[in-house]
Write a structure and sequence with these properties.
Elements: E1 2-5, E2 10-15, E3 22-23, E4 28-34, E5 37-42, E6 47-52, E7 59-60, E8 65-69
Length: 70
């Protein structure tokens, strides 16, 4: 099992995957807004989305777990 974490603190402005989706290394999974810039967050492993720990509008801190892959 692997996790996708926030590279920096910010606000979730879009979640591009759903639980059960299959994703590949490098796929864009969500977009954070940080310092008035949109920051795409990409998967670092391949797998299926087991759990999404944030939703649109959530404020997240750096290194917090956003998505769990199974």
């Amino acid at each position: 099992m692997s996790e996708i974490t926030a590279p920096m603190g910010g606000k979730v402005i879009d979640v591009k995957v759903k639980v059960g989706d299959s994703i590949n290394d490098g796929d864009e999974v969500l977009i954070l807004e940080a310092m008035k810039m949109e920051l795409p967050v990409v998967a670092t492993d391949s797998g299926s989305v087991k759990e999404i720990k944030c939703k649109k509008g959530d404020a997240v801190e750096a290194d917090s777990v956003l998505i769990v892959l199974g």
